[in-house]
Design a protein that fits this description.
alpha+beta; Rossmann fold; three-stranded antiparallel sheet; 3 strands; elongated
Length: 157
């Protein structure tokens, strides 16, 4: 028997911006191990709901409970500095130096004019930092989210 622990709970959450009610008596419970997908039309309150969960927006009404030291991660829907990057480049960039090296390696292998010594230098750095494991993690994340790795972020909706 698997017992899931509750990590956050929202009860009767309401949020309005002026006279515009964005969330009205919303209830949500998330347990450990659960994955959630929030879908809806533009302007239906998805971003506001995530901001309430993260504590960025306080509700006008309702109760929020979060497990101590709980962190939620979200990806902002607006990525102004990354619009020209591919999905792979953006995900890899989250891994600091290794991500930079992975992106450099990918660019070098795509360029037929790359000097072999330059490619070897990047490969050696990735070997030393166990960068290939991180590369596998990047590819796994992209695959699990069913995203097109080589598509530019500006082309996604």
């Amino acid at each position: 028997m698997i017992i899931l622990m509750l990590v956050t709970s929202l009860q009767n959450i309401s949020v309005s911006y002026g006279n515009n009610a964005v969330l009205n008596n919303v209830n949500l419970s998330i347990s450990s191990g659960e994955r959630c997908c929030i879908t809806g039309y533009n302007g239906s309150g998805k971003s506001t709901l995530l901001k309430v969960i993260n504590g960025v927006v306080l509700p006008d009404e309702g109760k929020i409970w979060r497990q101590d030291k709980l962190r939620f991660s979200t990806l902002d829907q607006f990525l102004p500095d990354a619009a020209d990057k591919t999905v792979y480049q953006a995900v890899a960039a989250g891994f600091s130096e290794i991500g930079y090296l992975l992106n450099q390696y990918k660019g070098l292998t795509a360029d037929a004019a790359t000097a072999p010594e330059e490619l070897l230098a990047v490969q050696n750095k990735l070997d030393a930092l166990d960068g290939w494991t991180v590369g596998y993690r990047v590819e796994t994340m992209i695959d699990r989210l069913e995203l097109p790795a080589e598509k530019k972020l500006s082309e996604l909706s």
